[in-house]
Amino acid sequence: MKGILIIPAFFVTGVILGISGIMPANLVSQEWSSYALYLVMFLAGIGIGADRKSWHLLRTINIKIFLVPAGIIVGTLFGVALASLLLPSLHLREALAVGAGFGYYSLSAVFITELHSETLGLVALLSNMFREISTLLLTPVFVKYFGKLAGIASGGATSMDTTLPVISKYSGREYAIISVFSGVILTILVPVLVTLILTVGTK
């Protein structure tokens, strides 16, 4: 529970500091968001590259396991496409970009802010943060009513790290390998898909 509270606590603190106007103007400039994006990408690359177990999985698992992240991608994008129909102010392309974060709120939010706008970046941050938190809290319910893979699907990119313990606990340790693999694939694809969605076909 402590870990869950830290995430929104930092966000709320940032909002309060931003509203207060006490932060130096050069600190809240758009240029810093680019540096933050580079740093997040660098750290994400280190995390994936240093995880030897994840690379070992890629060499040893059955090809059918690719159906798990593929299903999560299709299901997520289809779901946000339907959500865009209920939210007229949110265009389909914007909804798809937010969904393509797959729970990786830090990376997707910075990417979307850089490529689109701060408003959509905030939407991505909140929605993907909610995806992670809901996975941590509701995985027992998801597994009970929707099956062993439900927690992995809900966790998205986070199933390789932050939500892995709860997924392993309620789905079983045998699903931990699937969870890590799916999370690694989705984490790698987040910057690719978000960039494609927001840039391809635009002037």
Task: Give a structural overview.
By secondary structure, the chain is mainly alpha-helical. 76% of the residues lie in helices and 0% in strands. It contains 10 helices and no strands. The radius of gyration is 17 Å and the shape is globular.
Largest sheet: number of strands, sense, barrel closure: none
Task: Provide the structure class.
Answer: mainly alpha
Summed over residues and divided by their number, the pLDDT gives a mean of: 81
Order of helical and strand elements = HHHHHHHHHH
Gross morphology is globular
Q: Supply Rg.
A: 17 Å
* CA-CA gap between termini: 45 Å
Number of E-state strands: 0
Range of strand content: under 5%
Overall domain count? 1
Q: Count the helices. How many?
A: 10
Low-confidence stretches: none
Question: Portion of residues in helices?
Answer: over 70%
Condensed summary:
With 203 residues, the protein is mainly alpha-helical. 76% of the residues lie in helices and 0% in strands.
List the main descriptive attributes of the protein structure presented here.
10 helices; 0% strand; mainly alpha; 203 residues; globular
Q: What's the arrangement of secondary structure elements?
A:
Layout: H1 2-20, H2 30-50, H3 52-60, H4 67-86, H5 92-99, H6 105-115, H7 118-146, H8 150-155, H9 164-171, H10 176-199
Helix pairs in contact: 2-6, 4-5, 5-7, 5-10, 6-7, 6-10, 7-9
